[in-house]
């Protein structure tokens, strides 16, 4: 009895692996596959439309197009308004004229600024009611020399401060900003004076900026002479350059500010012409004051 029971138990244990294998094969044939076959079925498109954001409908929306057109027109109108108002004070379109220089012009202009006593013809040349470019006329104002003069003045001032062990970026920044502020205040004062005296002239703001910036040449000469040969050389060279810039400004501005009779060399009559003469002399006399004020503390 026990022997038959043990035999039946052995038979059951022996059949259990076969039943497991049979059941696993049946489950594998009836169950789902490891990777679904999606080649024959249509998948939903991925992108904004699948997420519920129809991009084409947004771009084709009439209100969106109208808003974009209105925004672009408003921006263009604002740009035109800014350009128009800026051109009233600083004609940006004419800046190219003031930088049309060459090496020959720069050399002649620097010589004229340092030694203007032998120069005879101070009139600006015109071609079809338009002044010629500075490289063709040494009397024409330019912005190249004032700009490079300002930069060179800042560099020479830094060199002078360095030789005295007083250099610092903050002090150099104060030196540059003060020179720029004084230049802007000078130009604004001249514009206000021209308005009060009611002078009809073809001088523009850029012309005044150019004429006021020519004094940096004499300032550089004075500082370099003081660094190389001491304080007496600074005073002598600065005195020479101050006299030269005074003569240069008088002979240049009298053709712009005075009447045609003064430009031709005849005696100036009338209260208005005398005011113009005083204004011309005041502008010329202000140049040596600024030259000394901006350089005396750099030489010790």
Q: What can you tell me about this protein's structure?
A:
The protein has 300 residues and is mostly helical. Helices cover 68% and strands 0% of the residues. The protein is built from 12 helices and no strands. Helix 7 runs antiparallel to helix 12 and helix 10 packs antiparallel against helix 12. The N terminus is likely disordered.
Q: Count the DSSP helices.
A: 12
Roughly what percent helix?
55-70%
Overall average pLDDT: 79
Instruction: Compute the CA-based radius of gyration.
Output: 42 Å
**Ranges with pLDDT <50 over ≥5 residues?**
1-32, 47-53, 263-267
* Spatial shape: globular
The helix/strand class is mainly alpha
What's the helix-strand series?
A: HHHHHHHHHHHH
| Count of DSSP strands | 0
Q: Report strand %.
A: under 5%
For the largest beta-sheet, the strand count, sense and barrel status come to: none
Q: How far from one another are the termini?
A: 131 Å
Quick take:
This protein is mainly α and 300 residues long.
SSE map:
Layout: H1 2-30, H2 55-59, H3 62-89, H4 95-98, H5 103-114, H6 144-163, H7 169-197, H8 205-213, H9 215-229, H10 231-257, H11 260-263, H12 271-293
List the main descriptive attributes of the protein structure presented here.
300 residues; mainly alpha; globular
